[in-house]
Amino acid sequence: MHWLADYWWVILVILVGIVLNGIKELRRLDHKKFMANKPELPPHRDNNAKWDDEEDWPKKK
């Protein structure tokens, strides 16, 4: 871990580069164009009632 004390600035430069590239890519994103051409979502189907038809609990007497 002694190398971390010596080269902490390299890790800092890499993290700053990642953040700056992320900001640059987010600026290029056109959210209005995406919202105009947004694909339709399929209708929601609730299959929770179908997967467990049998009762696992013991029957009460």
From TrEMBL:
The keyword Transmembrane applies. The chain crosses the membrane at residues 6-23. InterPro entries: UPF0370. It is a single-pass membrane protein. It comes from the Bacteria. Residues 41-51 have a biased composition (Basic and acidic residues). Residues 52-61 have a biased composition (Acidic residues). It is found in: Cell membrane. GO terms for cellular component: plasma membrane. Residues 37-61 are annotated as: Disordered. Keywords: Cell membrane, Membrane, Transmembrane, Transmembrane helix. Belongs to the UPF0370 family. This is UPF0370 protein BMI79_14055. It comes from Serratia oryzae.
